[in-house]
Amino acid sequence: MDVWGSSGGLLFGMIGIVLPSTFLFGMNAATSYVSLPMKNSIVIPTYTNFDGLKTCIDSISKTTTFGETDVWIVFNGAPPEALSWAEKLPIDFHAIVCREPLGFTRAANIGMVASKGENIILLNDDTAILDWGKDNKWVRMLVEPLKDESVAVTGSTMDYWARNKPFLVFFCAAMRRAMAKEMGYLDEAFNPGAGEDADFCLKAQEKGYKILQVPEQMTKWETRFPIWHVGHKTCGDLASWDQVSERNTRLLESRYPRTDEDRIFQVNFSKGLQNYDLWT
Prior knowledge:
- The longest helix has 15 residues, at about 240-255.
- Strand 5 (about 40-45), helix 2 and strand 6 (about 70-75) form a beta-alpha-beta unit.
- The chain is built from nine helices and 15 strands.
- It has a single domain (about 5-275), classed as Spore Coat Polysaccharide Biosynthesis Protein SpsA, Chain A.
- By secondary structure, it is α/β, with parallel strands linked by helices.
- A nine-stranded mixed beta sheet has the order 4-3-7-6-5-8-13-10-14, with helices on both faces. A two-stranded antiparallel ribbon has the order 1-2. Strands 9-15 form a two-stranded antiparallel ribbon.
- The model is unreliable at about 1-15, about 15-35 and about 275-280 (pLDDT under 50).
- The chain is about 30% helix and about 25% strand.
């Protein structure tokens, strides 16, 4: 990645950084910025879904208590209107501007590395946090279970790669920074996106860690977490999306082989069919 640290500052190669009321590009400007320690950092990669991003940011502003939590938006290639909008963000919001599209997986990694929170919350730009009051409830749901160091990742929505091989869908998920570093962040072999969440979770479970759906595990592909998710807006409009998805599925198959029954199980779980639990 074109992001690295030096003397507490941030250096950017092909990457610029936007701070409130200030538009900065290049290494000299960026190195003057030092991010203060933070408890939680929300990282939002964004590509072409600018309207969805604004809805997402508005929902975060209404439901999040800042001070211990900040937001990092990674513009994975950005239209001019998005950059002018980013300049006006409040002080708890930071934006990293990639001049050219780098892919969702890489953009997420850039945001994870650049942010400073002890906990990292990954959030898609096609989501909105439901207004249950500005008391950080949604953040606490995600990060409090991470105090248990046996828990690698928490998230709003569970899926299954195969029988006994669950994973959390990373449109809304959280992990300790130390865990992200231990796991090597998201595997950019899946770039521009699809499958990196399954790979991260399955790899963590192979190491003996747990993953946890919050606030409770559901019996089908649904959630009681306060979130609305449009789906397929963060990078699903790529012309090559079907080919990318097929390629990444093959990559997962090579790392975590499945039987035909495993595939049927996954489809049944996603559809909420009751016979999936015969194989758990």
